[in-house]
Amino acid sequence: MDEESNVTYLTLHWYTEINKYRYIFFFVMFTLYILIICTNSTILYLIWIHKNLHEPMYIFIAALLLNSVLYSTTVYPKLLIDFSSEKQVTTYSACLIQFFIFYTLVLSEFLLLAAMAYDRYVAICKPLEYQTIMTKTTVSIFLVVAWLVPACQVAVQAIASAEAKLCDSNIKGIFCNNAVYTLQCERSKLITIFGVVIVLDLAMLPMLFIVFTYTKIFVVSHRSCKEIRKKAAETCLPHLLVLLSLSVFFVYDVSIARANPDFPKTTRIIMTLQIMLYQPLLNPFIYGLKMKEISKHLNKLLSQANISPKAKVK
């Protein structure tokens, strides 16, 4: 038992299910990773260079896209190494670092979406007070809170997990998400209680706040003129789509780890891949196509890219 408790190297044993197709998976995941980096970075670049996009709503969108780049970079490079290797091995400490960064960034998205909801509420329901409420200081505070609070709370989970005794060296997953809990001989009360606290104050409460805020926005806009209703739909619906996508996969991630249902391994692998795939790819497409100002600058950038080669030929 003592030997089992001192496990330092872990095997990601689910790769045996897809070993025959690992080079295909490598090519697909590499392509998707490049696509995630390029699409998110393009929108970030547009927000950075255009002064009319230096508004609170676009700054929060930029933070959301930056999150997508960072947590994809936390997972994809290691994933690609594993797909191209004969053995998929990692250390427990490296696994916990990946766990910490991944969940800090994923959970911060709920707080960023809550900040966006508040921004839209002030812009639509209190337009005359918008400039005095949504100042640079307010935006900075929201951003710091969105990243710092999840980091502190997830750090408790990571540190408590580092102290836990391990009875298994096989991670039931393709990267270090909630599956790390299944390695522990016994889950401590601190991990269980803090896990519930994290779900409540970093996921459930922001979701309830967002739903309540958007309900108020739609009530106010319904009573207002057509222009206000159009503005509410254009700016709020993209945020709600992102929230819905994030919520579905977060619920799945938590339920798989906590309830540990008897899902077929291949199905669980596919669902886990979707957690890493849809959100970072969905964000730039939703905000790039649905947000009018960003879409306008994006079309201009694409048209310039098409014109440039022709200009050189001439």
What does this molecule look like?
The protein has 314 residues and is mainly alpha-helical. 77% of the residues lie in helices and 3% in strands. The protein is built from 10 helices and 3 strands. Strands 2-1-3 form a 3-stranded mixed sheet.
| SSE pattern, N- to C-terminal | HEHHEHHHEHHHH
N-to-C span: 75 Å
The secondary-structure class comes to mainly alpha
Query: Are there runs of 5+ residues with pLDDT below 50, and where?
Result: 1-5
Percent in strands: under 5%
Please give the largest β-sheet: 3 strands, mixed
Count up the helices: 10
Computed CA radius of gyration, to the nearest angstrom = 22 Å
What overall form do the CA principal axes indicate?
globular
Percent helix among the residues?
Answer: over 70%
- pLDDT averaged over residues: 82
> How many strands in all?
3
User: Strands of the largest sheet, in order across it?
Assistant: 2-1-3
Write the layout of secondary structure elements.
Layout: H1 2-5, E1 9-12, H2 22-49, H3 56-83, E2 89-91, H4 92-125, H5 130-133, H6 136-163, E3 170-171, H7 189-223, H8 226-259, H9 265-290, H10 292-313
Parallel strand pairs: 1-3
Antiparallel strand pairs: 1-2
Helix pairs in contact: 2-3, 2-9, 3-4, 3-9, 4-6, 4-7, 4-8, 6-7, 7-8, 8-9, 9-10
